[in-house]
UniProtKB/TrEMBL annotation, chains A, B:
PROSITE patterns: CBS. Belongs to the chloride channel (TC 2.A.49) family. It comes from Orchesella dallaii. This is Chloride channel protein. Its main location: membrane.
Length: 678, 678
C-alpha cells in the first residue's frame, strides 16, 4: 500500500505538472497573439492558432486511445466500478492502459476539451495497485518473485479498491474522501482491516503529492500550503439557518440538470455505439469537438463585452481584447485557463467579477460541450466539467441572491458557486457521502459540510427520480453484468430453477483429456461442476455434486500435462499451487494448448484440484436469496442442486443481471434484459 | 431516519444541558466555599462538600443502573457492536435502558467521575432507532400500527446502525464521523442505499443539535457558531513536514499507554466479575471512586502551587486558593469543570498556562482514575477521559518541544495536546478512520487531518501488538459469540464436520404438537432443520433436508393453535405473516404457551411456514468458508448436509466464535475457547 500510494501520487504529479506547464505555455502564446492582433485587427490568426493548439494535442490523445488501447477512453470509473463489483473487464488494469490513460488525459486537458484529469487519475491508481500487488509485469515479462501470495482474484481486487482510493486522494487531496469513494462506488463487503489498509494508502498518496507539489510551487515542506487545495481555500464562509431552503432548491436544480445531462449523454452514447464505429471517424469526432470548443470560446470572447478593471481578478493571463486600458475581458479570463482553474475562479472571484449574461451563456455552452465530450474516444474525466457547469449557474443564483438581499454579509456568490457545483456533480454522478467529503477536503473548509450534504442528498433524490447516475448508465451500455446493491424488487417469486442455465456441462471426477479439451473448446463457461455420474444414465437423471473446477485450472492441467498416464502420482510431478500462481492472471487459451490424439485417451483425476465444497444453493431458493449470496460473497457462479444433491443447473452473474428494474419517472417495472455481448 | 435523527439529537441536548447546568451550579457553589474558606482556613468543609456533591449524584446513577437496568452500565458501545454483529443482547434496545442510560450518564458526569457522555449518547441513538423503526413500544403497550414492514431482525438492525451513527453525530457534531463509526465498528455488509440513509439521519441529528444548542447559547440560527464544536475551534494550526516523526513517536506512546490501560482494565474487570457480584457492593465501589476523585482533585489543588495571572485563561470558575491576588490556581481550573471542558482547556490554553509538574501529576492520577472508573456500574463513556489523559501528556510533549525549539511558530502546545489526545484514545479503542473524521469534525479543523491519521494509525499498530481494543476485550469478557472481520488464520484445515454440533434435533415435515412442545422445552436452539424421515430409521441414517424452522415460528404456531385438527386449511385460519410481526420481537417462552394433553397428539404441517431454501453448506466445507458465509450474510445458524442432502449437523455463531486467535506479543496461536454463558 505504501508503494501504491507513492507511485499513484507520482503519476498524478506528472499529469498535474505536465498539464500546468503545457496549458501555461499555450495560453501565454495565445494571449500574446490576441494582444497583438486586437490592435492590428487580425483576430482570425489567434483563432486559428487556438484551433490548432486544441486539435493537435487532442488528435494525439485520441489516436493513442483509438489505435492503441480503446479501454483507456473516458474516465475509467465505470470500468473500475465493474472490476470491483467482481466482473472481469479485459485489459482494464494493464500497464499499457495506464500509459495511454496518463498521456491521453494530459493531451485532452491541454487540448482545451471540457474534461478533467480526476477520473483518469482514479483509474491510474487502480492500475498501479493491480500491477504492484502482483509483483510482476506480463507486459515487460518481468517477474520479481514477490507478493506471490496475492496472485489471486480476491486479493487483487482488494488492492485495486485501495488503488482507486489512492487515486482519489491524489486527484483531490482527499484521503478520507478516497476511502469513502472506494466504498460507495466499489466495495461490497466492508472489511475493517482492508479499510484501514486503504486508508493508509490514501494517506501516503496525499502526503507524497503534497510534498512533491509544494516543492514544485516553490514552498518545500509546507504541506498545509493552501495552493495545494484543488479548489482553493474557503475562508470564513459561514451560512445562515434561513439559507438551507435555498440550498435545497439548488439541489433540486442540480438533480434536474444532472438528469438532463445523463439523458442526453445516454442518447448520444447509443448513437455513438451504432454509427461511430470506424476508428478514423472516432478520431474525427474528437477533432470536431476540439475545434468547436475553441470556436465557442473565441465567439464568446469576441461578442460578450464584459470588461473588468485589472488587478482585482487573480487570473494568470488576462487579455484586454476590446476593453479600455487597465481593464481585461472577464470572459477571456474564464476561457484562457484550464477548466480546473476556471472552477477556482468562479469559487473565489470577488462579487461583481462577472456579468450575469456572460455567465449564463457560458453555462449553456459548457453544459452541452461537456455532454458532447463525455464518451468521446479520449481519456477524460467528468468531475471538473460538471463542477464548472454547476459553479456557473451557482454563481448566477448567487447574483440573484445579491439582488434579493442586498448588503447581507452572508450572501457570497463564491459560496453559491460551490453549492451549485456540488449540486450539478451530484446530479450527474449521484454520489452522496463520498462527494461531500471530497469537496470538504478539496476546499479545506468544514463549515460548509452541512449545506453540501443537504444539496447532494437533494440532487441525488431528484435525479434518481428520472434516471440512473451517468456511471451506471454507461455500465449498462457496456453490457456488463454488474449487480446492484439490493436484489431487484418484485422478484420474490422467481426461483433458482427459472434463473439458472441448464442443462449444465459437467465433468466426472476422473475425466478423459479428450472430453476436457472438447468442452473447453466448445463452451465459454468459466466454472464446471464435477459430479459422480448418475447410476442410470438415461438422460433423466443428474450426477451427484462433488465439487467445482474452473476453466483456468483445467487449462493449467492440460498445459502441464498432469495426466494419470504420465504421472505416477501427483506429488511426484511436483504439482503445487505454484502452477496456478505463475499463470495468473493471463492463462493460455485452449487453442494455445496442444493436446495430441494419443493424449486424448488419457484421464485426469480432478479431485485433488477441484474445490470440494463450493457454495451451492437448492433449486427452490428465491432470486433475492441467490442475489445476496452473489453480492455478499462476490461469487461468479453458483451450482444449483436438487434435494438429492444432484446438479441441475448453474447460475452466473449474467443470469442475475438479466433481471433489472426499469425505472421510469418513479414507476418501477421488473424486466428481463438481453445483455449485449460486445 | 428523520425521526431518529431528531429524537436522538433532542436526547443529546437534554443530557448536554442538564450536565452543563448541573456542573455549573456545583462548581459555582464549590468555588464560593473554597474562596471563603481559604481565608478562614476551613478547607475541610469545601472538601467534604465536594465529596458529597460527587457521591450523591453518583449513587443515584449507580443505583439506577444496578437495581433497575444493569445492561445500561458502561458506554454501551460494546453491546451495540455485538447487536450490529448479529448477536441478540437481551434488553439492549429497550426504552427502560434508554432512560436509565440518559439519567445515569447525567448523574455520573455531574458527579465528577472521570467519564464522558459520548458513549451513552451513541447507545441512546441505537435505542431510539430500534424503538421508532418498530412503530410500537412493548413497555408502554402501545402499537401505533405503523412501520409493520420493519418488524424483522435485519431491518431493525439496519435502523440501529443508523441510530448509532446519529448518536455519534449528536455527541461530537460529526455526521460523517458518525457514518464511519457505524461502519467501522458495526456493519458487516456495506450497502449503498443503507449508507446514505444513515448519512441522512446523522445529518438531521447534527442539524437539530446545532439549532437547539445555538438557541441555548443565545445565538439562535447561527449554526456555524464555533461554541458548538465540542473541542473548540483550532485556528491556523499549520504543521511542518519535519514534525511528522514527532507525531509518529506520539502515536507509539499512545499505543503503549492505551495497551497498558486496556491490560489494567482487563485485569480489573476480571476481578469485578469474580468478586464484585453483590448489588450493594457495586454501588459501594462507585461511592469509593467518586470520593477518591474528589480527594485527588482537592489534594492536587492544595499541594500543587501553580499560579497564573487571571484574565488569560478562559476558565469559568477560577479559584484563587493560596495564589496572590489577581492570580488563580491553574490546577483548580482543570478540576473545577467537566472533563470535556478540561479537554478544551488543554487544547486551547495559551502556551505557559500550565506547569510541567502539575500536568504530569494530573496525567498520572487521571490515567488510573479513568481506568478504575471504566467498568463501574454506572453509565459512562470512555472517549472524554481518554482524550483528557492524552491531552495532558500531549501538552507535556508540547512543552518539551518548546524547550527544544524555542521561538518556532509551529510549536503550539495545544496542537500537541490534540495529537496526544488522539494517540491515547486511538491506543485504547483502536479505531482509525472514523476517529480521524470525528476529531476533524469536532475541532472544525481539516488541516490537522494528516497528522491525526498518522498518529492514529501508529497508535493502532503499536497497541494491536500487545492486545485488543478495549471494546473487543469487554465483548470477549461478556462471552458474546461475536465474529471478527476475517476468518481466524491457521483454520484452513478445520472442516464443517469438526465445527458443527451434532446430532441435530430435527422435525419431520408434519410433526406432532407433543414433540414440538417437548423439544422447545428441553432445547435452547433457535433454529431446527425440517427433514423427511430416513427410510430406514436405524439410527445410522439421517433425514433428507427440507427446510429450516425457527423457534419463534414454532412458538407462534403453538400460541395460535394452528394445528391440523383444528383448522380445515391454512387459509381458513387467516394464517398470515401478521401473527409473526405482531409478536416480534418479544415472543412468548414455551412456558407461557399452554399445550393440553389432547392437543399433544395433533399434528402441525411445518411446510407452509418453514424456510424451504435456507443457506446450507456441505460437510466438507472449510472453516473460513463457513465463516465468510456467516459474516457476509449475517447468518445465525447454518445447516450442514452431506452429499445426499441429509442433515448431519448445525453450525451456530457460537461454534465459530469458539475459534479465536490468541494474540500475545505478536505471536499468533489458534485456540478453542469455552464461551462463558452468563
Amino acid at each position: 500500500m505504501i508503494f501504491i500510494g507513492i507511485i499513484t501520487a507520482l503519476i498524478a504529479c506528472c499529469i498535474d505538472i505536465a498539464i500546468e506547464e503545457g496549458s501555461s505555455a499555450k495560453f501565454a502564446f495565445l494571449k500574446e497573439q490576441v494582444d497583438k492582433c486586437v490592435a492590428e485587427e487580425c483576430l482570425v490568426y489567434p483563432f486559428l492558432y487556438w484551433v490548432l493548439l486544441n486539435v493537435v494535442p487532442v488528435v494525439i490523445g485520441s489516436a493513442l486511445v483509438v489505435y492503441i488501447e480503446p479501454v483507456a477512453a473516458g474516465s475509467g470509473i465505470p470500468q473500475v466500478k465493474c472490476y470491483l463489483n467482481g466482473v472481469k473487464v479485459p485489459r482494464i488494469v494493464r500497464i499499457k492502459t495506464l500509459i495511454v490513460k496518463a498521456v491521453g488525459v494530459t493531451c485532452s486537458v491541454i487540448g482545451g476539451l471540457a474534461v478533467g484529469k480526476e477520473g483518469p487519475m482514479i483509474h491510474s491508481g487502480a492500475v498501479v495497485a493491480a500491477g504492484i500487488s502482483q509483483g510482476k509485469s506480463t507486459t515487460f515479462r518481468r517477474d520479481f518473485n514477490i507478493f506471490k501470495y496475492f496472485r489471486e482474484d480476491h486479493e487483487k481486487r482488494d488492492f485495486v479498491s485501495g488503488g482507486a482510493a489512492a487515486g482519489v486522494a491524489a486527484a483531490f487531496g482527499a484521503p478520507v474522501g478516497g476511502v469513502l469513494f472506494s466504498l460507495e462506488e466499489g466495495a461490497s463487503f466492508w472489511n475493517q482491516s482492508l479499510t484501514w489498509r486503504i486508508f493508509f494508502g490514501s494517506m501516503i498518496s496525499t502526503f507524497t503529492l503534497n510534498v512533491v507539489l509544494s516543492t514544485y510551487h516553490g514552498r518545500p515542506g509546507e504541506l498545509t500550503f493552501a495552493g495545494l487545495l484543488n479548489f482553493g481555500k474557503f475562508d470564513n464562509t459561514s451560512y445562515d439557518f434561513r439559507e438551507l431552503p435555498v440550498f435545497i432548491v439548488m439541489g433540486c436544480l442540480g438533480g434536474l440538470s444532472g438528469a438532463l445531462f445523463n439523458y442526453l449523454n445516454f442518447k448520444l452514447t447509443v448513437f455513438r455505439i451504432r454509427y461511430i464505429t470506424k476508428k478514423y471517424v472516432k478520431v474525427l469526432e474528437t477533432v470536431v469537438v476540439a475545434a468547436c470548443t475553441a470556436t465557442v470560446g473565441m465567439g464568446m470572447i469576441l461578442y460578450l463585452n464584459d470588461c473588468k478593471p485589472l488587478g482585482e481578478d487573480p487570473t494568470k493571463y488576462p487579455i484586454q481584447m476590446y476593453c479600455a486600458d487597465g481593464q481585461y475581458s472577464a470572459v477571456g479570463s474564464i476561457w484562457f485557463q484550464t477548466p480546473e482553474a476556471s472552477v477556482r475562479s468562479l469559487f473565489h472571484d470577488p462579487p461583481g467579477s462577472h456579468k450575469l449574461t456572460s455567465i449564463l451563456i457560458f453555462f449553456t455552452f459548457y453544459f452541452f460541450l461537456s455532454c458532447w465530450t463525455y464518451g468521446l474516444s479520449v481519456s477524460s474525466g467528468l468531475f471538473i466539467p460538471s463542477l464548472l457547469t454547476g459553479a456557473a449557474w451557482g454563481r448566477v443564483v448567487g447574483m440573484g441572491m445579491e439582488e434579493l438581499f442586498p448588503g447581507q454579509t452572508w450572501v457570497d456568490p463564491g459560496k453559491y458557486a460551490l453549492i451549485g457545483a456540488a449540486a450539478q456533480l451530484g446530479g450527474v454522478v449521484r454520489m452522496t457521502i463520498s462527494l461531500t467529503v471530497i469537496l470538504i477536503e478539496a476546499t479545506g473548509n468544514l463549515t460548509l459540510g452541512l449545506p453540501l450534504m443537504v444539496t447532494l442528498l437533494t440532487a441525488k433524490w431528484v435525479g434518481d427520480y428520472f434516471n440512473e447516475g451517468i456511471y451506471d448508465t454507461h455500465i449498462q451500455l457496456m453490457g456488463v453484468p454488474i449487480l446492484g446493491w439490493e436484489p431487484p424488487p418484485l422478484s420474490h417469486n422467481i426461483y433458482a430453477t427459472e434463473v439458472m442455465s441448464c442443462p449444465v456441462v459437467t465433468f466426472n471426477s476422473v475425466e478423459t483429456v479428450g472430453k476436457i479439451a472438447d468442452v473447453l473448446t466448445n463452451e465459454t463457461y468459466n466454472g464446471f461442476p464435477v459430479v459422480d455420474p448418475p447410476l442410470c444414465p438415461d438422460g433423466r437423471n443428474f450426477g451427484t455434486f462433488r465439487g467445482l473446477i474452473l476453466r483456468s485450472q483445467l487449462i493449467v492441467v492440460l498445459q502441464h500435462k498432469l495426466y494419470n498416464e504420465t504421472a505416477e502420482s501427483w506429488s511426484h510431478k511436483g504439482f503445487t499451487i505454484k502452477y496456478f500462481r505463475d499463470a495468473y492472471p493471463r492463462y493460455p487459451t485452449i487453442q494455445q494448448v496442444h493436446v495430441s490424439d494419443e493424449e486424448r485417451h488419457f484421464t485426469v483425476d480432478l479431485r485433488p484440484i477441484m474445490n470440494p465444497a463450493p457454495y451451492t444453493c437448492l433449486h427452490n431458493a428465491s432470486l433475492p436469496r441467490l442475489f445476496r449470496l452473489f453480492r455478499g460473497l462476490g461469487l461468479r457462479h453458483l451450482v444449483i442442486v436438487n434435494d438429492n444433491n444432484e446438479v441441475v443447473g448453474m447460475v452466473t452473474r449474467k443470469d442475475l443481471a438479466r433481471y433489472r428494474v426499469e425505472k421510469h419517472m418513479g414507476r418501477m417495472r421488473l424486466e428481463e434484459l438481453t445483455i449485449l455481448d460486445r
